[in-house]
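Our preliminary data section would be incomplete without showing what the modeling component actually yields. Below, a chain of 673 amino acids is followed by its predicted structure, encoded as tokens that our downstream tools consume directly.
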Amino acid sequence: MNMTFLDLPQMISASGAVRLPGSKSISNRALLLAALADGITEIENLLESDDTARMREALRRLGVKIDETDMGAWRVHGVSGRFPVRRAELFLGNAGTAFRSLTAALALSGGDYTLTGVPRMHERPIGDLVDALRQLGAKIDYLGKTGYPPLRLRGREKREKTHAAARVRGDVSSQFLTGLLLALPLIGGKTRVEVTGALISRPYVELTLKLMARFGVPIERHGDQSFSLPGASLPGASLPGDTARYVSPGVFHVEGDASSASYFLALGAIGATGNDAVRVEGVGCQSIQGDLRFAEALSQMGAVIEMDEHGISARAPSGGQGLRGITLDCNAIPDAAMTLAIVALFATGETRLLNIASWRVKETDRIAAMDKELGKLGARVEAGADYLRVTPPDENHPLRAAIIDTYDDHRMAMCFSLASFAVPLRINAPGCVAKTFPGYFRDFAVLARPAPVIAIDGPTASGKGAVCARVAAALGFHYLDSGALYRLTALAAREAGVDGEDEAALAALAAALDVVFQDGRVSLNGKDVSEVLRGEAISSAASRVAAFPAVRAALLFRQRAFHRAPGLVGDGRDMASVVFPSAALKIFLTASAEVRAERRWRQLREKGQDPDRAAILSDLKARDARDRNRPAAPLRQEPAARLLDTGALDIDAAVAQVLAWWAENGAGHRAIP
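Predicted structure:
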């Protein structure tokens, strides 16, 4: 997904099933274990993402042979604990799991390696892991700021003693302990790791231990504070008394990603009502992933959760009771807990997410990012060093459409997509989901149903405004007069003394319009301008302003922000082609220039003016030509649009025809945003 932004309309319901991609946490651990093992491992359902691609690329540069089978699995030829390439420079992007586990494995396996990443990776602390590795004899240099990547690893000092021990903090990132544990068999002899401080993200450590055992190396565990690899004979040892070696299990299947499941389970809890549900397949009650506990959190909030060996389904609370806020220690589900911050917007009572200090050292400072972006929506948020408190909206604090920044953080993009059940959104840089779930927004669009749109285009004075307003009233839908936004821009430019040919200045004005539509009136900068907007001078100026691509781009999200439940009727020149290309019903309303000029002449006469018929006709023809030939969204009938010629129809007949078409094939349409 190579898009600058993705606009999401307000969603009204959700249902269906989705098969989850492979777990990122399992995929990268399995790749490294298979590379270090004796034998060949065939990994099925490996996650295809930026993070796993970084790990595969790094392992290949280290001399590990990895190839894809005809069935889509990945075959990894193990190197028995010694990488063939002893000197390499590895770029690991922002893949924290890959960076930290490879740091430990390479530091303890010998060789000379340089590890770098994106700028954000160089801001994520690694000093506690480096300190622990140095206790085990590793020689590591910081190439930038002390305590942070990039790093140079220059092998391990030879030590005579057969026992090794290291201490590592457990309260910053569980990935430090995971990296150490994965690398223990490379040291030789009996090795012990002691954890100081509270161990956060415990389920991820448990996941690491289970995977190590699957590859033939069990770890002795003494609570959360001590882990050891005995030097005695173990199932994977090559000789009695040797330290165990990793041994390929032959075929290894990666279960679906439980962290990714959280978004779809939340989707069901928010938007699946009645007999509908959202089901995730590929992860179930026998999962070894800690984020499975997210389903328990949703259940505490009142969601209906059903689980079996193969999948989990979620739906909104029964009986119309609604979700309720909770207070939750999120130590066990730090990644999935982000999703709860969005679910909290749809609950009654505040939600408190506790013990989330690790959010601050992730792809971005997630506590600060969630605080800021939730604030854009108008949510009431309190953020602390290790907690987040979210109070849902009420009639005095309604949510509002917003443009959400994602900070190159995949989880920010996926979490905030759920907020579209409250208001329309723009998600900036949505491609960041490729880190773990490249197809996320495709799957989201299949499950989530947006509010419907009827888009009515057509030339000036064809009757669009009158027809749209009447259709919207008949259906109980919102009404968007997109032309009003261009007229407001033209009016704002006149009042600010902005040159009508200065495209950049006009676009800036359009983006910053202080406008309110209420009760059929329009105000600009706090002043009622409803009558001024209908004047011929502003209307003509608006036509010229609308020809600038930068102005149209500036107003695009403002127009899409009207796409709310229960539905929208949009009136404008490019409603069906640009603004709402997936509209449920598209109509091109037209009439001859002569008929339209006559209508406009009568309208002006009714207002007490004495217009010139010939001048009106000439102006309409000039506008038509300008609108058809402009480079930005030229006036045209879309292939899927129905043609409605109003030349011989009165307003009642035109409205009746639109409503008939809507009843015929629009009302049940499921548009993809």
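Confidence is low (pLDDT under 50) at residues 232-241. Residues 5-20+259-450 form a domain with the UDP-n-acetylglucosamine1-carboxyvinyl-transferase; Chain fold (CATH 3.65.10.10). Preliminary results of this kind motivate Aim 1 of the renewal.
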